[in-house]
């Protein structure tokens, strides 16, 4: 019986806390938002940062002309970077490696993990195309020596080679390696490395700001009821539930 009253007491405290939340009307909230001054130039830079980082070169060029916002890197390098990314996404890993070396050979020379993952992706593509003997030879000659030097590389190699043990790879424990998401993961890693080599942020600022918005709203939810943005795609304010 005492446990029952403890639960009742806790529920009463929660209701009291909820009741004590400050309620902010839409009118007051919108007034507070209008008081925040954001320069158009800063917004333009944020948009340009996203376009450049994600590789939308045509959109970046058009936005540069319309807004007068200059990108912080040469837009021509975006085309080269996207060619590398596309090659990986299409499974043309050898071509991607050549393109990376043409851009900057130090990228792979100074990043053994990235080079291993590209070679691992080459192995995956050989297995995908049913080239079993070539895949085994490639794994033994190119990847095994790196696995001997790095335990995590060895574990990834073993997972990849395990694909050869299954006739129906769609139901095998490591079947996700043949999924398109694996190509995208490798392509994203290459993209980030190229950006870093160009002294550019590897991640766009806009998604980080949206994550900060979500975090701030979650913190504020504990203290107040206010017009909230629940759909980030529309950024529409929804009246507080009281």
TrEMBL record:
One of its GO terms (biological process) is proteasome-mediated ubiquitin-dependent protein catabolic process. Pfam families: CTLH, LisH. It comes from the Eukaryota. PROSITE patterns: CTLH, LISH. Residues 77-134 form the CTLH domain. One of its GO terms (cellular component) is cytoplasm. PANTHER family: RAN BINDING PROTEIN 9-RELATED. This is CTLH domain-containing protein. It comes from Prunus persica. The lineage of its organism: Eukaryota, Viridiplantae, Streptophyta, Embryophyta, Tracheophyta.
